Amino acid sequence: MTYRTTFEKTPTFKDAIVRFGRGERAVHEIQALKNISFDVPHGTALGIIGSNGAGKSTLVRTLGGVLTPTSGRIEVRGRISAMLALGVGFNANLSGRENVVLGGLAAGLTRKQVQERADMIADFAEIGEFMDLPMRVYSSGMYSRLAFAVSVHMDPDILLIDEALSTGDAHFKHKAAEKMAELMKSARAMFLVSHSMASIRELCNRAIWLHKGKLMMDGTPNEVTHAYATFVKVGEDAFTMDDL
Ligand SMILES: Nc1ncnc2c1ncn2[C@@H]1O[C@H](COP(=O)(O)OP(=O)(O)OP(=O)(O)O)[C@@H](O)[C@H]1O
Ligand SMILES: [Mg+2]
Asked: In this structure, which residue's CA is closest to atom 2 in ligand 1?
């Protein structure tokens, strides 16, 4: 996956001429993922770890179909529900309930199904009266609670979660972990991007480690988180287990 982006904030014709005169290139390429290949059978809870900028979000965005890979291919068998970086798919001026209803209708559910599901989602998210307030007044934790609740109530075969849990409080993290374990029992697949090595070890049965777009390791959560902690030379203690 290669991102192509321009240097200028607002490219102008004059800038383009000047750049051309100097023989500079207008676009900057960032190779976010390089030659990555792996298979994930049903029943796998795959943890994805690595430093900031390693390519983790890019990987789950390509899996979720938000980005099209520049080269290579992704084969998906099953229905994907993605909880990607916060902010995708919600309209901040609508209430949580309105967003859920609109999303459900867009997904082809009937009004009755949508109402039922909205109630289940509201129950799970536990954000009280905020469910009926515009999402722009939500705290980031409320936002991620709702986003998580929506993604797990879409009855997905494949669940993609990017950093979802990081802004939830202890109570919600616990609840989210239980829900993910429950989904895993029905032989689904889950992808979890997290900087919390403790969560990766607790929730996943396999892990991959990305570094500067390359796949460094693919193995058990224990061995991969251990190798990563050693690589970044911080050692392992209670603090780093929750913050790499
Ligand atoms: N929309 C974009 N346009 C251009 N480059 C991007 C874009 N999104 C990400 N990148 C670049 O791709 C690389 C991988 O970014 P990515 O967001 O996948 O990292 P990450 O592993 O999720 O990091 P973090 O832990 O900070 O969330 C980085 O070098 C980043 O600068
Ligand atoms: Mg990211």
From this structure: 3
